[in-house]
């Protein structure tokens, strides 16, 4: 007789894992294609590397307008026009001459002193502020419409990019600080704001408020220039000297320092 064969122990059934549920796919998409992260638009859109031909032509037109405005000063004298103006047209002519002089890069301290000399402190200060607003608005419109498209691609580098960002995001505050700083060139500030992303009305309002201190000092000095020992002239001259010293000190502090 043969010996009975041993009975093998039953083996447990193999465990199988359920397949993971497939991610939902959109209609027409390949289910075997790898998943990609959704595209998010950049908060800072890329700028063209080079300005277009049309933008360069408009920039050339801007330079031509500014050059014509400066060259016209060889043919007429704004102070003579203001002195000859009389009657009801005197104030409109003064405002137009001030605004045009600002576009022609005439120094604002001289124009403010002339306003004080012709109209006195009471009328000279508001007229000079209004003339500054007219010149700033005209420069902004010309710079924004003719020059911004060509110069925006050239705004590169860390410093220029940061200045452009501040003017675009904090327009009113940035323009106000520029106008309150005595050493900031008025005309250069106008076109820098025009080429940036600052809005027009915050720019204009900050300009009107910011030019009041320096404008008042020069207008009062011009109005009291015939009495150099008067308190008004001495105070205005002291304020002007303080502003000039502050500007010089600020520029000295901002100078590039050589590394040891």
How are the secondary structure elements laid out?
Layout: H1 53-71, H2 78-84, H3 90-103, H4 108-151, H5 158-169, H6 171-180, H7 186-195, H8 200-210, H9 212-223, H10 231-253
As a percent range, the share of strand residues is under 5%
Q: Low-confidence parts lasting 5 or more residues at pLDDT below 50?
A: 41-45
Secondary structure tally, helices: 10
Shape: globular
Query: What is the CA-atom radius of gyration, in angstroms?
Result: 34 Å
Alpha-beta content class = mainly alpha
What's the count of strands?
Answer: 0
What's the helical proportion of residues? 55-70%
Order of helices and strands: HHHHHHHHHH
Largest sheet: none
What separation lies between the terminal Cα atoms? 107 Å
- What is the residue-mean pLDDT, rounded to a whole number? 79
In short:
With 260 residues, the chain is an all-alpha fold. Helix content is 62%, strand content 0%. The radius of gyration is 34 Å and the shape is globular.
Structure description:
The chain is about 60% helix and about 0% strand. By secondary structure, the protein is mainly alpha-helical. Helix 4 runs parallel beside helix 7 (about 185-195) and helix 4 packs antiparallel against helix 9. The radius of gyration is 34 Å and the shape is globular. The model is unreliable at about 40-45 (pLDDT under 50).
